[in-house]
Design brief:
The chain crosses the membrane at residues 9-30, 36-57. Keywords: Membrane, Transmembrane, Transmembrane helix. There is one protein chain. With 224 residues, the chain is of the alpha+beta class. The chain has two domains: 2-63; 85-223, no CATH class. Helices cover 34% and strands 27% of the residues. The protein contains four helices and twelve strands, in the order αααβαβββββββββββ. It has helices spanning 2-32, 36-63, 65-73, 94-102; strands at residues 89-92, 111-112, 114-116, 129-135, 141-146, 150-155, 158-163, 167-171, 174-179, 188-195, 198-202, 221-223. The strands form two sheets. A seven-stranded antiparallel sheet has the order 2-4-5-6-9-10-11. Helix 2 crosses helix 3 (65-73). The protein starts with a helix and ends with a strand.
Length: 224
């Protein structure tokens, strides 16, 4: 109960900060020019602040504060930057990442939760997994195996990035998720493929999938 209250409190602070910024801009606009046009613009800005604050609050609650903050840290602004020697993030191709993992030179810890094109609600994604091994069985294929008998296959990954709190693949052609450690001993296999700016999902018919929960503009894979 205490943790739940703390989560709501911190999420509320994030929302309040965003809302206060927009409200401040709106009030400043009215104070400098008291015309009808300024009042209309100020009203729009303040309303946008309330909407944005609400969205931040709901997102922080649904993802959890830690996941929300680390996903902000793992922002797309870093995607096109070439890391320096002492940088707090690294950029790899497939073989470079496998080599860094095997030599224990990678930055990201082994424990992780998963997002695929922004989706964190698919069965198994939001559970805690520990990376056991990484390999490349075929050219342009990265396979990540977890200790809880789950695995990811990522075809043609581009911009493989990692920091101390995230591992991210910005683009890829498709992702396969496999879970052989299920309560009914029936393996779950799902294939997520980006086509024409839409995510195509192929999985067992008994698994409900909301395509609206996938966002093509989000990174293809994030481990947090």
């Amino acid at each position: 109960m205490k943790n739940h209250f703390l989560t709501r409190f911190i999420a509320g602070l994030f929302a309040l900060l965003a809302n206060s910024l927009f409200c401040g801009i709106g009030i400043l606009l009215v104070g400098t020019s008291q015309s009808i046009l300024s009042l209309i613009f100020a009203t729009i800005i303040i309303a946008t602040g309330f909407f944005l604050g609400y969205k931040i609050y709901r997102t922080a609650l649904s993802r959890g504060i830690i996941s929300f903050m680390t996903s902000v840290i793992a922002s797309p602004d870093l995607d096109n930057l070439e890391p320096s020697v002492n940088s707090n993030h690294k950029k790899y191709d497939i073989l470079q990442f496998i080599s860094a993992f095997q030599k224990k030179e990678n930055l990201f810890p082994k424990g992780t939760r998963l997002r695929v094109w922004g989706n964190y609600k698919f069965p198994g994604f939001n559970s805690y997994h520990e990376i056991e091994s990484v390999q490349s069985p075929d050219k342009n294929l990265l396979e990540i195996s977890f200790r809880d008998e789950k695995s990811l296959k990522i075809w043609n990954p581009q911009y493989i990035l990692e920091g101390k709190s995230y591992f991210k693949i910005v683009n890829c052609d498709k992702v396969e998720w496999k879970d052989t450690n299920t309560s009914d001993d029936k393996p779950v296999t799902a294939l997520f493929e980006l086509k024409n700016n839409h995510i195509k999902v192929a999985t067992q018919p008994n698994i409900p999938v909301s395509k609206d929960s996938f966002q093509p503009g989000e990174p293809a894979v994030i481990l947090l």
